[in-house]
């Protein structure tokens, strides 16, 4: 009988073990939840079904955004009557503001709203801005009817019309900027990195995300760009508004399928707590190896999708915030608290969050100058193309549509990297990831230098074949007396910029997403967007400085209204030199960088050299 009972008990235990394994297989292991806050079921949520919906959403939203952005410089010159330098500066400032708003969206997402709610709200603002732009342009700015093409200038504009235009485009900047970093991270959330198959899909998602971004802009750069170049601005803007509306509807349709991570609270307060706690203990002696550091190891601390971070060397002053002293233990006992007061005692994870951000900053700063190169496609590349021969067998090639070669280059190099370069480097390095994100970003900088040299050489030959018989007043524009050099000589510089994007921006997205703490994932994506923002502002500043220094007497400067009288090639070569210097600094920063280390979600990682003290510790 005892043997029979023992067998029954063993059978019961085996059934329980099988049941537990089935439950583990049914639910995601990364802490994600469904829209009701319950643990996400793997087969009913996320994965590629939700991922593809987000990719389509991104493509449509990008089509809408670039339907405005790609020809904005021409709208400012032809409709609002601004000169080339002023228009280029305004486009750079506007584009910079778009990406600067990404910090706002990331903060609200990580702290309070969560990624889904943040994406929905900012997409609605984006649609509102596009609708307002379409109406204000049609009613106030495009007068007389048919103006705004290459030959017909628009008349004088009212103050209210101009004001509504700027309010509209900055609503677009707010909506798109707040949405962009969150949609990238939200898409990555749909894949459980604890599952080997979904983990690989998550890595691939960033490449396809950037591909969707570029394919979305292909239509706006070609079809919409053509109509806008012909002066049919209202049609282009309304098409953008319709695309953005469809993107929002599709995004909301996927609501039942999405996986979510709960917001982790205000990161600024956590950052300040570390600084205050470290300052209070600046005289406290540290144990070698960090043996007296505090960590919260309660099970529920890791069940909301957050992992503890392992202690790393460097920034030792900050470690003082996590030193647990006898006073801290006594205070916790007196207050009968299971957690410490974070303004006096922080966890190792909280300290490592601050260290992580401080380590990311030098890498991030080095990417800003690359964004200066990238932003030339929306401004000076277009103006350069506008001053070239844009006829092909009687058909006019809109200068802004040349960025289609950048998009095709991105698509080709993503395919080339995923199918050829990555498997080859993985085999050579014996690392499943192949090239690291930092190595890929360095390659992107090298290719960007080549792109600027190529653009400078093309400008040298454009000037060689340019018609220089302009009035002394300088009212002649490059487009009215163009160079006989074909606009298709710009193809190499667009292709090189596209190739550099695949290495730099895709690598950046992966790098910041993987290295950012779990409570700052949207902030990690926002860093990538913010580097673009500052790149645009730096570009605007460079143009202003260059024009101020190079304009002397009869010399109209390097980038005058009539490019045939300027020296745009010198500006391109200057960017190549600055990017080369940036590459050297980046190489040093990449060698110094230490990768973030996370503890396993179940706490099984034993590589930490810090003695973790449980939150419920009592004396």
TrEMBL record:
<dbReference type="Pfam" id="PF00854">
    <property type="entry name" value="PTR2"/>
</dbReference>
<feature type="transmembrane region" description="Helical">
    <location>
        <begin position="442"/>
        <end position="461"/>
    </location>
</feature>
<keyword id="KW-0472">Membrane</keyword>
<feature type="transmembrane region" description="Helical">
    <location>
        <begin position="96"/>
        <end position="113"/>
    </location>
</feature>
<feature type="transmembrane region" description="Helical">
    <location>
        <begin position="120"/>
        <end position="140"/>
    </location>
</feature>
<dbReference type="InterPro" id="IPR000109">
    <property type="entry name" value="POT_fam"/>
</dbReference>
<feature type="transmembrane region" description="Helical">
    <location>
        <begin position="200"/>
        <end position="220"/>
    </location>
</feature>
<feature type="transmembrane region" description="Helical">
    <location>
        <begin position="48"/>
        <end position="76"/>
    </location>
</feature>
<feature type="transmembrane region" description="Helical">
    <location>
        <begin position="527"/>
        <end position="551"/>
    </location>
</feature>
<dbReference type="GO" id="GO:0016020">
    <property type="term" value="C:membrane"/>
</dbReference>
<dbReference type="GO" id="GO:0022857">
    <property type="term" value="F:transmembrane transporter activity"/>
</dbReference>
<dbReference type="InterPro" id="IPR036259">
    <property type="entry name" value="MFS_trans_sf"/>
</dbReference>
<protein>
    <submittedName>
        <fullName>Proton-dependent oligopeptide transporter family</fullName>
    </submittedName>
</protein>
<feature type="transmembrane region" description="Helical">
    <location>
        <begin position="360"/>
        <end position="382"/>
    </location>
</feature>
<feature type="transmembrane region" description="Helical">
    <location>
        <begin position="232"/>
        <end position="254"/>
    </location>
</feature>
<keyword id="KW-1133">Transmembrane helix</keyword>
<feature type="transmembrane region" description="Helical">
    <location>
        <begin position="160"/>
        <end position="179"/>
    </location>
</feature>
<feature type="transmembrane region" description="Helical">
    <location>
        <begin position="571"/>
        <end position="589"/>
    </location>
</feature>
<feature type="transmembrane region" description="Helical">
    <location>
        <begin position="402"/>
        <end position="421"/>
    </location>
</feature>
<keyword id="KW-0812">Transmembrane</keyword>
<comment type="similarity">
    <text>Belongs to the major facilitator superfamily. Proton-dependent oligopeptide transporter (POT/PTR) (TC 2.A.17) family.</text>
</comment>
